[in-house]
Amino acid sequence: MLGFIIQRLLQAIGVMAVMSVIVFCGVYAIGNPIDIVIPPEATQEIRDAAIQRLGLDKPLYEQYFIFMGNLLQGDLGRSFVYNIPVLELIGGRLPATLELVLISVISATVLGVSLGIYAGYRPDSWVSKTIMAVSVLGFSVPSFWVGLILILFFAVNLGWLPAGGRGDTVEIWGVAWSFPTLDGLSHIVLPAVNLALFKLAMMIRLARAGTREIMLTDTVKFARAAGLSEGTILRRHLLKLISIPIITVFGLELGSTLAFAVVTETIFSWPGVGKLIIDSIGVLDRPVMVAYLILVAFLFVTINFVIDLVFALIDPRVRKGATA
Amino acid sequence: MTDPVLSVKNLSTHFFTRAGVVKAVNGVSFDLARGEIMGLVGESGSGKTVTGFSLLGLVDAPGRIVEGSVKLNGTELTTLSQRDLRKRRGSDISMIFQDPIATLNPMLTIGQQMKMAIDAHERLGTRAADARATELLTQVGIPSAAARLRAYPHEFSGGMRQRVAIAIALLHRPSVIVADEPTTALDVSIQAQILTQMRDLAAETGTAMIWISHDLAVVSSLASKLAVMYAGRIVEQGPTATLLRDPRHPYTAGLIASLPAMAKPGTPLTQIPGTTPSLLSLPLGCPFAPRCDHATNRCKDDPPMTHTAGRGYRCFHPTGQTAKAPA
pTM, whole model, 2 decimals? Predict the structure, then answer.
């Protein structure tokens, strides 16, 4: 098990190193931030000074090594635009995204897996058919449109829920969170539903496909022949047997939603990181872009690492294969 | 004769598919005494497995038992509610399957799976349950059973896995075990070991067995009586030795003749011409008639089960010398 963890850690470090090069080169290939950072009527001297101050006069590889050197010391640089440390900038926005995404992905998974198992267990009932119809909608209706309709319906017409913003927040560990307050929670509902819809549809499909497959296997027949109740079979056998693809997708969705919840965040004026990165790209704020993309890569690597650990924890065959 | 533990009368299981009604099991009847082993033989698709599932009430939709009776220790199973039927499964009647890799859950330990099977019928503490599981594993020949409770299925060989499955089926000392080709996926030497063991277990515990197989050679070494299935019906049944020595139904005769052991070395193996009919559109009358040398016009009618001297067959033109006299 320890060998497995070390092996995965080394892989993770390798992936991060490659990612940093790609991101750095990619971001530095587009546009010239100087044109945006300083006013066009600035003198050549001011311009040169700014270039020098931002380190843009140095060759690319040198900039990269300076950046990496700082990175290893925990310094991701300062925003060209806001002139504050990037980490502070992102850190201030991350909790908003984090709570929104966690709530939506987790509830989509719990609900989606339950509905999917039901639909797979009783494929011919009208309830199952309704569930599947809803899941098709979840897949095919564009997210931004759903967001607008949600606002129109629940915020404008019915007036039940607020249309945007984070509402009241509470400080925990020096960070503002919305979910502990009732007002904050009511602000989360609509964007969370908006984000969750696609994931819900996907989880329903995954769980249903898995259930239909597993219910036909000899494992289930043998369990039935041994007199196990259907409830026990679903809880103890089925849930474990369908869990691998569900956990995989859960991890991927968690990562990609954390990184790219931008559409929903924009529609609901949710002050998360998605909105930050879009703004940064608009003004070519390179340090923010680079730091953000590297954080995203780090996030994915971490999530995948955790998921591999979870696999090893629940599936003895993975555990065995890894140490052998 | 004492009352049979299992008495099956005129059992029919049909599948209502879009293509039509598949008559997988069609009027099957047999009795099974305590500790008796019956071999149920036939080609693939002859309805052996569906018969087995019907006994446990485990026929999946779109199939269902359309008529007949299954009496286990005097209780009619076909009319029981799903709830009551579940209580019987595993405790009074259980089943083992062909592929032990597929039957055990790869993500749970043997101990967990045995505990679940125990919990389904009895409230036992962890320690008592472990003791019971260990006892059964030892009984089916698994060495250092107590330690193996924490092992996962993939840590066992195929033969050992099948023994685990058998141990699970035996946990509550059922009256009847339906064994659906449990040795087909195993090596010949392991197969022989398990067969011997099952025979001993049946004798020791008084558990009756229905041994489903397409391999007449395997079954005949184990079972005291045979039932030969063809196209959803039992075409011949009787004591193993009698049936093998002196088959009445031409299909049974064909099966015996096609055993490799019956062929002279170097000569081609005998085979029954033709293939099994589709269960969707069975021919009128005897379903074996199109493949039968003995078939006449009379075979367009359905031959009833003829009972003589402890055996029965469905044929108007039985083979064998002694049979010619009454016809």
Answer: 0.81
